[in-house]
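Tokens for Major facilitator transporter. Go.
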Amino acid sequence: MFSSAKDPARSGHTRLLSLHEFVLLIALVMSLGSLSIDNLLPAFGPIQADFGIADPNDLQLLITTYMVPFAIMQAVYGPVSDVIGRRPTLMVGLAVYLIGGVVATTAASFSMLLIGRAIQGAGLAATRVLTVAIIRDRFAGCEMARVMSITMMVFIIVPMLAPTSGSLLLLLSTWRIIFAAILGFAVLVAVWFYNRMPETLHPEYRRSFAFGQVSSAVRSTVSTRISIGYATAMALMMGCLMSYIGSAQQIFETEVYGLGAMFPLVFGCIAAFMGAASFTNATLVRRLGMRRLSHIGICGFALVAAVQLGVAVLYDGRPPLLLYAAIFAVNQFLYSLTVPNFNSIAMVPLAALAGTASSFIGAYTTLVGALFGLVIGRSFNGTVIPLSIGYLCLGTACLVVVLWIEKGRLFLRSQPEQGGAEQALPVAAE
């Protein structure tokens, strides 16, 4: 079990954290990011009407202005956490997020709302980098991939339910109640984390804050072929996800399929396929290895993306809903076989640099993904063709990058994947 006995910041207290609670808590911390995006999608229309926004594509700025600071600030939180620890750094990030939430909830203009979103993204960047670092502190190799997959399986429940909860909240009040509800949830998660999660940074990995050490860690990450290569592959895949999130409301709720109140149901069903993939990955990763599963995923993704574009063109950009949603759901399933494994593979050589490496990889992948998502999302023209083109181009580019990393040899299982849990502060398996 997790014990606070090795946490100098909390000596004198006896606290135990089981594997189940560890996974659930980490998943809920991670889910704050998804909740802050997906819960807001049903509010795009009311926000547009409230502030008199002429171009619906401008509403995608609610995603972009959140994601860019979210990406950049990850490069700060990781090195800081290597110095002062994971727990205090995460609490600072959550405090910044709460300030941004207050600004967004009380915004009197669209510009002020975007400022609030930017502050939220800057704060919540801590959750992205530190959840990965905490898991890497505890696990390595396939065990890390397995825990990541189990965590993602719990985490996926949030995008399944978020648009529905957002729609229900809109029935009670204005779009502002959505921000208020997320604030309340964030406070509960922060209190739980503060009271239950011990410090996971290994004492021997604690570093002094020096620019030379940070830049050295970044150079080590960039110069490690596996790490920077799989980080790039993950960034390309995240570009697909960001383009989907930015376009989903216009595709399903309003302009293409006009589902209206049924939009959360379709969004949730597609997210359910991602959850099923996380379960599949957690089940098979020990047997097949991270590389084999992720290589199967990216090859399948590129192939299905070609089918997705072909169907979109065949029906002049408006294919039957069930057909397109089914193809899209399959690709989201394959997406979830790649990204958690790509992330774990990239982190395998970087145990001693987990905080800084995770922050750099997180910032790099999120920023690149957000920019690709913005370009593809703003190309929306009332059809699904721009999104389908984006999926095919990014999926193919990702496959090319993986082929470069592996020197043309796919589906092999390398020795570092055999790594298991670390020894310090062990988590009890239940």
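The chain has a mean pLDDT of 83.
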